[in-house]
Amino acid sequence: MLFNKLFHFVLAVILVHISVASAQIMYTRRLTIHPKTRFCLLLPKSIGTAIATGIDTSVSWCTSSTSVVRNAKKFPTGFIKSAHYKEGPNGRYTQVTGRIDRTKFHLSYNDQGAQSDPSSVYASHCVGFGYFVQFVEPNANIYCLRCCYDADDCPTNQPDKGCKDVIPGDYS
Q: Which secondary structure element, helix H or strand E, spans residue 93, and what is its range?
């Protein structure tokens, strides 16, 4: 009887720890775009980690704090050089495109970046939308993020194409 109670107690403790860990991942892997004011991208947890290498441990980095993305980190000063917001026809998607300064995140000029989407980054999503696709390309000093209601507006089947082909926009 004592063993049975002890077993159930230990099992309950383990489940609570798993639940808390899952909740922490959800809060640190959210994206958001508030047109013309702020946005978040998924980037490696540690500054200096190559984009593709850091996908598995990526977390939210934002232009400013936001209540919908808890535990997000703030972009290093000067990392985001420009941000151009665009909304798709009938509000089907919203996107932000622009330039970065890779040196502010200690990224290599050889880092070609990577695509992030819900299937490549565990427990990630764009708040208020069902789908997203993001690229960060340090070698070209550009980034892009599109959050969509329909999967057709967020093509995730072109990881080798990059920002300018997958998410047309203003990269000045």
A: strand 93-99
In angstroms, the CA 60 to CA 166 distance is 21
Q: What is the pLDDT of residue 8?
A: 34
- Residue whose token pair is 């990526």: 58
Tokens 């089907």 correspond to what residue? 92
> Can you give the pLDDT at residue 121?
86
pTM across the whole model: 0.82
Mean pLDDT by 10 residues, the chain (172 residues): 40 28 46 75 94 90 79 93 95 96 97 93 88 97 97 94 97 98
- Please write down the long-range contacts of 125-128, taking CB distance under 8 Å and 24 or more positions apart: 125/29, 125/30, 125/31, 126/30, 126/31, 126/32, 126/33, 127/30, 127/31, 127/32, 127/68, 127/69, 128/32
CA dihedral over 63, 126, 30, 134, signed as positive or negative: negative
116 vs 143: CA distance, rounded Å: 11
Sign of CA dihedral 44, 48, 51, 55: negative
Contact (CB, 8 A) for 44 and 54 = yes
d(CA 152, CA 154): 5
